[in-house]
Amino acid sequence: MDRHDNAPDTRPPATAAALDDRCARCGGGFHCGARDAAPCACSTLTLSAALQAELRTRYVGCLCLGCLRELAAAAAGGEPA
């Protein structure tokens, strides 16, 4: 998920293979590709504006692709995130 919080990202650019981030939801290691040259894996998901807003209020930082997929599926099914 792109960093939408207007805070500057002070992390050095990461290598594609590094699991250098922790998911704010599940705590699992993953690589956030928001600063990579190629599109981040999360760009393959479509999250509604309402879900994005809710996630920004609940979590600080990025979520792993697995959690984003789960939350997107739950939202599509009418379940709360």
Q: What does the model show?
A:
- This protein is mainly α.
- The protein has a domain at 21-76.
- Helices cover 27% and strands 5% of the residues.
- The protein contains two helices and two strands; from the N terminus they run E-E-H-H.
- It has helices at residues 49-58, 65-76, and strands spanning 21-22, 29-30.
- A hairpin with a 6-residue loop joins strand 1 (21-22) and strand 2 (29-30).
- The model has no long low-confidence stretch (mean pLDDT 81).
Distance between the termini: 15 Å
Q: pLDDT average, as an integer? A: 81
Going across the biggest sheet, name each strand in turn: 1-2
Shape: globular
Helix and strand run:
EEHH
> Helicity level, as a percent range?
25-40%
Secondary-structure-based class equals mainly alpha
Main sheet characteristics = 2 strands, antiparallel
Protein name: Cysteine-rich CWC
Pfam family, one: Cys_rich_CWC
InterPro entries: Cys_rich_CWC
Q: What are its keywords?
A:
two-stranded antiparallel ribbon; 5% strand; Cys_rich_CWC; 81 residues; globular; mainly alpha; Cysteine-rich CWC; 2 helices
Describe the structure concisely for a colleague.
This is Cysteine-rich CWC. By secondary structure, this protein is mainly alpha-helical. The chain has a domain of 56 residues.
Strand and helix layout:
Blueprint: E1 21-22, E2 29-30, H1 49-58, H2 65-76
Antiparallel strand pairs: 1-2
